[in-house]
Design a protein that fits this description.
- There is one protein chain.
- The chain is mainly beta.
- The chain has one domain (about 5-345): Tachylectin-2, Chain A, CATH 2.115.10.20.
- Helix content is about 10%, strand content about 55%.
- The strands form 5 sheets. Strands 11, 12, 13, 14, 15, 16 and 17 form a 7-stranded mixed β-sheet that branches. Strands 18, 19, 20, 21, 22 and 26 form a 6-stranded antiparallel β-sheet that branches. A 5-stranded mixed β-sheet has the order 2-6-5-4-3.
- A hairpin with a 4-residue loop joins β16 (about 210-215) and β17 (about 220-230).
- It is globular, with a radius of gyration of 19 Å.
Length: about 350
């Protein structure tokens, strides 16, 4: 009897857990020492919703257009259902490099729960702009059927240039005519030609969560040709992609990843370089971790979760969430970050 698609993917997970290890060491070299900026809920003013101040704003995606840095935080306004929406505001990137601009920041909600499968929240944006399309990947938290168990799916919303939503949906996996919808999140688009994309993604298969690559049809929202890329090391509980993919040159893309420690569940972050198909070319040890009261404390302590990655002039700017309650902006020189990468042998 042929194996089910879920079972085949689980076999790939187990093989990856045996073979995709030893790339990294449990070492932290925090290179984002200067210019750490914090943006809290009180710094935001929501213009298009009756609740003007969120209780929490964190895990922001990012997009750079010229000198304008667009930031897309996950906002929570009440804790009864912990329901999330995604908002949008802009900063002058030059002011960010100098330590930040003046608040309050004027913010609009652009994505909120509408469907059964995202009825508990729209979380953790990753932006892609290219080929005349503006795409926002997010985690949809909800239910696959009424009365069912809460789950999360890798969702996609497409926008017009004025942040007007034109469609949304979620991805399924298809192989050999069989369709499977796992718990899935933390995806990024590498390349897009027509409707065919090369992507990074993180499905959870029978409790195993780590970094994969795939091909995907963005119109049909179908993933296929999935292969593991980066697995947890012995001291880690899980890994995942953290950010959008930042093109360096040719077919090389810089992307952030995160891992949680088995010892203390701290979220730490590193960088990787992949090619246009998502194959791993280089990886760092940990380069960013929470430190100090503002970064270590929150609704989920010891959590630094980077979502947005941009480069401007000679700088790399990493925009992340802290403690599931506020936004952090971290900066370093791009060359210094690239020097910390360990290139894999071909």
């Amino acid at each position: 009897m042929p194996m089910s698609l879920e079972r085949r993917l689980a076999e790939r997970c187990r093989e990856a857990l045996r073979e995709l290890k030893g790339f990294r060491k449990p070492r932290v070299e925090d290179i984002f020492q200067a210019g750490r900026i914090y943006i809290g809920p009180r710094d935001l003013y929501i213009e298009n919703y009756i609740r003007r101040k969120p209780l929490s704003a964190f895990n922001p995606g990012a997009l750079l257009r010229g000198g304008e840095l667009h930031i897309f935080p996950r906002c929570i306004f009440e804790y009864y259902n912990y329901s999330s929406s995604i908002a949008h505001f802009t900063l002058d990137v030059g002011e960010v490099l100098e330590g930040g601009g003046e608040g309050p920041l004027r913010v609009e909600l652009i994505l909120w729960p509408r469907e059964l499968w995202d009825s508990r929240g729209c979380e953790d944006a990753r932006l892609y702009e290219g080929g005349g399309r503006l795409l926002l990947l997010y985690t949809g938290v909800g239910y696959m059927e009424v009365g069912g168990k809460k789950t999360f799916v890798q969702a996609l919303a497409e926008f017009k240039g004025d942040w007007r939503e034109v469609r949304r949906g979620y991805f399924t996996i298809i192989e050999a005519g069989e369709v499977y919808t796992p718990r899935s999140k933390d995806s990024a688009i590498l390349t897009l030609k027509g409707s065919e994309a090369s992507m990074l993604t993180r499905p959870t298969i029978r409790g195993m969560s780590f970094c994969w690559r795939c091909r995907a049809d963005m119109d049909e929202m179908m993933m296929h040709t999935l292969e593991p890329v980066l697995a947890p090391e012995e001291w880690e509980a899980k890994t995942g992609w953290s950010t959008n993919a930042l093109r360096l040159s040719g077919e090389e893309y810089l992307v952030g990843w995160h891992a949680t420690s088995k010892r203390d569940l701290t979220y730490r972050n590193g960088l990787a370089v992949v090619d246009g198909e998502g194959s791993l070319l280089a990886v760092s040890d940990y380069l960013l971790e929470p430190r100090g009261l503002m970064e270590e404390y929150g609704d989920r302590p010891q959590t630094l979760f980077g979502c947005g990655l941009v480069s401007y002039k000679e700088y790399l700017i990493w925009i992340g969430g802290l403690g599931d309650c506020l936004i952090g902006i971290f900066m370093t020189e791009l060359e210094e970050a690239l020097e910390r990468l360990r290139w894999l042998e071909g």
